[in-house]
Amino acid sequence: MTERFTDQVAVVTGAAQGIGLAIAERLASEGAHVVITDLNDDAGRAAADRIGGTYRHLDSGDSSAIADAARAIATEHGRIDVLVNNAGVAHDDASLELSDETWAKVIGLDLSGVFFACREFGRVMVDQGRGSIVNISSISGVLGTNPDVHAAYDAAKAGVAQLARTLGVEWAQHGVRVNAVAPTRTRTPILDQVASEDPGQMDEWMRQVPMRRLLEPEEIASAVAFLASGDASGVTGHTLMVDGGHTVS
Predict the structure, then answer these.
(1) pTM of the predicted model, to two decimals?
(2) Helices 41-51 and 18-29 meet at what angle, rounded to 10?
(3) How many domains are there within the chain?
(4) What does the pLDDT read at residue 1?
(5) Is 55 a catalytic residue?
(6) Backbone angles phi, psi at 27, to 5 degrees
(7) Does 200 reside within a domain?
(8) In this structure, is residue 4 part of a structural domain?
(9) What would the 3-class secondary structure string for the chain be?
(10) Which of 20, 177, 196, 223 is deepest in the core (most CB within 10 A)?
């Protein structure tokens, strides 16, 4: 495999498992030193050991903690080349029953936390005159989801894609690219559990995807690696749909 990230430092939030771990593994396999951040310390350390990276405990909804992390990582490694904002939380609540607390929690992590990380790691990248940020959005940011309902998550993921557009334009003159990847439903332990507990739900989801399958975390990781790399040097402010045709069907 071509090592597009040799001698680069990449930070992946929420990377102890699932899509985040697949992204961390892919970047590491292409030569990056990957800093994994998460709240699950045991899983995070194990993931970092597995890929030969570094682990840092981080609450991705805490702006001051993110600022501290950005400064510390930049000081320790001398540079930050790539940031992948993957950390997030989901919910399933009908909008009329959606509490203020759940709304605030989801927006606080899935949207505000992404902005905080873009801002604080972006400071480092702008000062360097180079860097690439990839935010994990979702098909839920562009579609009215059905039959599942999660208004706060949908609004947050739409905001994440918009942040890529806004910051991608704002920081282009500084050599910093900002893009997003929007996956459809992807094979994770949570979806595996849904498949075993409610096969009918999974069948309904699969009918919505022309490829008639879940995507694999490695497929999302491939798209992230492309956008983060020099192969996408002319791409900024873009949201790449990795959805098996879901959003155009």
Answers:
(1) 0.95
(2) 20
(3) 1
(4) 59
(5) no
(6) -65, -40
(7) yes
(8) no
(9) CCCCCCCCEEEEECCCCHHHHHHHHHHHHCCCEEEEEECCHHHHHHHHHHHCCEEEECCCCCHHHHHHHHHHHHHHHCCCCEEEECCCCCCCECHHHCCHHHHHHHHHHHHHHHHHHHHHHHHHHHHHCCEEEEEECCHHHCCCCCCCCEHHHHHHHHHHHHHHHHHHHHCHHHCEEEEEEEECCECCHHHHHHHHHCHHHHHHHHHCCCCCCCECHHHHHHHHHHHHCHHHCCCCCCEEEECCCHHHC
(10) 20
What pLDDT, in 10s, does the model give residues 197-245?
788 878 887 888 899 888 999 999 999 999 999 999 999 999 999 999 9
pLDDT above 90: percentage of residues in the chain? 83
64 vs 70: CA distance, rounded Å: 10
Amino acid identity at 120: E
Say if CB 68 and CB 58 are below 8 A apart.
no
In a domain, 249, yes or no: no
For 135-186, the pLDDT digits (tens) are 999 999 998 877 778 999 999 999 999 999 999 999 999 999 999 999 998 9
Domain that holds residue 77: 9-243
pLDDT at 82 over 90: yes
Buried b (16+ CB within 10 A) or exposed e, 206-242: eebbeeeebbebebbbebbbbbbbeebeeebbbbbbb
The answer to whether position 71 is within a domain reads yes
| Residue of 55, 116, 121, 153 marked catalytic | 153
